[in-house]
Amino acid sequence: MADMTGQVALVTGGIRGIGAAISERLVNRGVVVAAGYSRDKEAAEKFREEHPGSSVHQGNIGSNDDCERVIGEVLDEHGRLDILVNNAGITIDKTVRRMSPDDWDRVVNVNMSGAFYLSRAILQHMLDRGSGRIINISSIIGESGNIGQANYAAAKSGLFGLTMSLAQETARKGITVNSVAPGYISTEMVAAVPKEALDKVIAKIPVGRLGEPDEVARVVEFLVDPDSAFITGQIYSVNGGQHM
Question: What whole-number distance in Å separates Cα of residue 211 and Cα of residue 123?
């Protein structure tokens, strides 16, 4: 694997769940991680203490102003930004008939528009440097849809279009843009699902279990590696064969 020592990565939602696993993988490769978070300040401070040289940045990625501010903070503190992982997301699950316009807007703004805001904010820096890696963390729900998750499915599916379009715009500029679509992963969010419902989900996964956050993180690590420069505009599904 290529040397990544000294590179800087912004991982949104980088202190918990899949985001934390991605951050850890990158730190182990010598990457300086700037971890984005929204509310859990205690966890953010713990992350910074455990990873000397890292930084934490609070903000709402559903806000373009916040996204531009965070990108500015990272560049001011570290002087460069080589990798952007758009991982943060939220759910507000309701059927379309019961879903309010605000429920729709909040999920779409965070899960899809935030990836656009951050990518747009860092793009000129990456173009000037002639290199960059952007990873959009989507979901199996973006591929298959799901009852009660029209807003989440639409946003995660929208990341595929953003990924492919931005990849085509930047392919000759040394920048790659790819998407990773996890299935059901063992995180706090999935742990909150009632056992009976979760058992039914697992029964539909060919490998017979939930995925682990690190199994998603290792795909992200592969895609941001300098040696993966010929891979762009792709969707990598990590779902145990649940959606083929």
Answer: 32
The yes-or-no answer on residue 117 being catalytic is no
What is the model's pLDDT at position 40? 85
Q: Which of 117, 152, 184, 236 is catalytic?
A: 152
Q: What is the pLDDT of residues 201-239, one digit of tens each?
A: 999 999 999 999 999 999 999 999 999 999 999 999 999
Fold of 8-236: Rossmann fold (3.40.50)
Local confidence band at 192 (pLDDT 50, 70, 90 cut-offs): confident
Query: pLDDT tens digits for 81-100?
Result: 999 999 999 999 999 999 99
Q: Are 136 and 115 in contact (CB under 8 A)?
A: yes
**Contact present, 140 and 182 (Cβ < 8 Å):** yes
Annotated domain spans of the chain: 8-236
Compute the C-alpha angle 2/221/179, nearest 5°.
125
Q: Both tokens of residue 69? A: 């501010």
- Sign, CA dihedral 177-183-186-190, equals positive
Which regions of 54-188 does DSSP assign to beta strands (E)?
A: 55-58, 83-86, 132-137, 175-182
